[in-house]
Amino acid sequence: MKDSLCGTDKKEMTRRTFLKMAAGSGLLVGLAGALSGCAGQGGEHAGGEGWLPYQYNVAGNLPAQVRGRIPIDADNPSIVRDDQKCILCGQCLETCQNIQSVHGYYDLPVIDETICVHCGQCSMACPSGAISERDDTQKVFDALADKSKYVLVQTAPATRVALGEEFGLPPGTWVEGRQVAALKKLGFDAVLDTNFTADLTIMEEGTELIKRIKGEVKKPLPQFTSCSPGWIKFCEYFYPELLPNMSSCKSPQQMFGALAKTYYAKVKGIDPASIVSVSVMPCTAKKFEAQRPEMNDSAEYWKREGLRDVDVVLTTRELARMIKQKKIDFAALPEEKYDSLMGEETGAAIIFGATGGVMEAAARSAYFLITGNQPPPLFLNLTPVRGLTGVKEAAAEIPGVGTLRVAVCHGLANGRKVLDIVRAGNAPWHFIEFMACPGGCIAGGGQPRTAVPPTDAVREQRIAAIYKADASRPKRMSHDNAEVAALYKDFLQHPMSELSEELLHTEYHSRAEKLKRLFALVG
Amino acid sequence: MASAKGVLVDITRCIDCESCVVACRLYNGLDADTKGGAKPRQTGKNELAPNRWTVVRDNHVQKDGKTVRRFVKQQCFHCVEPACASACFARAIQKTPEGPVVYNEKLCVGCRYCMIACPFGILRFEWDKPFPRVLKCQMCLSRVADNQMPACASVCPTRAIVFGEREQIVQEANKRIAAKPGLYINQVYGAKEAGGTSWLYISDVPFEQLGFKTNVPEKPIPEYTWQVLKWTPGIFIGWGALLTGMYWYNKRRATVHNEEELYAPVDKK
Questions:
Q1: Which of A47, A345, A492, B155 is 20 to 30 Å from A337 by CA-CA measure?
Q2: Radius of gyration of chain A, Cα coordinates, nearest whole angstrom
Q3: Is B55 contained in some domain?
Q4: ipTM for the whole predicted complex goes beyond 0.90
């Protein structure tokens, strides 16, 4: 419209036009900047220099020295790890690789399981306590509270020289009597001894050895001991071709479990289904062993589904926890004795807990089984197989057979050395004892963590206690165990009888398809 | 100018020890949420979360007629051209020259565009916080800037996680595949996905079986933005010109109309 009424043609700057102009020019500058790609593309970050939050410039809680850790599967029956405690120090790797020769000795990729022999040595080396045994104490408390259950417990040879350490006693304190008293206080219906089946193992395993030597059993020599479940799984993984050398005898724990629900139930007139068979072991691998599917011979014997030879396995540490939970003053307990029928022990059974002990016990009874005479004093103090040397050898003259050559090794890396010799066909031995843990069961993966990492000083004190107890026993040979003799007379008839084979012997399965083994460490 | 770093994850070498997961938590000071030794997997929560920037996922897959287990470490891929950063108008997520794609909570407005933009679905939002953040792996930027491995790579006991220049890492991946053609499948995941990522994977089973997204385009996601945005100036100027023309046309028509009315001959009636 024409602005002629004001009488001038000059445009006046009104507030409205000014604002329109300012907005328009701003828009133009912005548009030009955006189109040319200049605006907002300057060298500086939004937020200016040092825009990164402080959080990303500090090392948090990661320790300076980190090495990673071993894999532990979520359904590992023996050990568990608390991720919150793990500091990635690498002690478990070190143990698994260099002491046990498991980690690093199989090729990657993995196949379908996490390779573990359940020895629990990693839990002994773990400085922050992140790795520990799978806690089964609640199962035992539940069973003890159930009045319809007959809860019996067996205790391994090695727990009685270490349990006291959890209660402030020095390493190697002999607490056999107090352990029995504590178990009775906890409410177990029967407190029995794995030493009974250790003696039984010697009768079976010694007989098997003699039959192999004489050629009555068509199985190769040297014969391997089969008491250590960690060692057995190791052999199944890494040396399956040597499984025929493995004694078919079950471990003392499993022999005990099979007899508890057959022989013991029969003699005592107890329904085997109401028996809860608990064992106290220095070992985490025993938890795995008890879960092996074939370990249900009592079910086969009674033709009843669902019976397990051993229901719950507790480690020494778990037993200590139970005693503490019930506020029992362990150190002040009176000494008590094992219950009868499956509670007698000899010196030979006690030394099962130390490296070389199975071999020494076997040698004592093998002499007797071959010659019918009691062995000479040398066999009662077989020093070449004692001590903490990694691989030990001994030879003993047995009339009628000649020289019996034996080897003893402990720690699976030492076992590997011996196995490589056997695999190459250069083994001069008749009988080899393997124990998965360095020092034997007395330093098993379920024992009190008195020294972390475990030291030879503690091992030696526990071993000394074992041999001291052996020397002080009136009976020091397995074949002298009266309850074992009664068991053969009343139930099994003789070593390696048909019933013995059914209840006390087992078979092993190659686990070669679970890994691609390597014979040397990969870098 | 630092050259961009990269990390190779060799899935065939992972043994599921989860050292990397613990190292990540320790280094970044994240809250542990596993109580009493239960692994996240046992509680059914083995997923990325605001306080779990990396996880190892367990896959049961078929290989040569047998079921095998393969473990996949999962974390931010740190794309060479990250979509999350291009979507962030607050510039709270930025690509650093060293390679890591880094988030700064002080700049974040919480719009979660980045979460929609991410082709791998990695970012996690703190839904339960009054001032929530969007969290993900930072690739240990301050370590990487000093040419140190990220915390997770530094603790890997089997060397399944390898750190280096991204170009070298791609070469290493191809070298490993070439060395064992019978083992690996011939693909480096992350070499081309989403225009390339700083974290690369090689495997002996096809990636789609391991939960990897295989439908990710090979073109960088931000490039799709320009397919649309390049029309903006044309539309802006064209639309403006059209409206201006219409304005002038209408104005002229009104003027002519008014003049015709003013100067029209008086009706002779």
A1: A492
A2: 34
A3: yes
A4: no
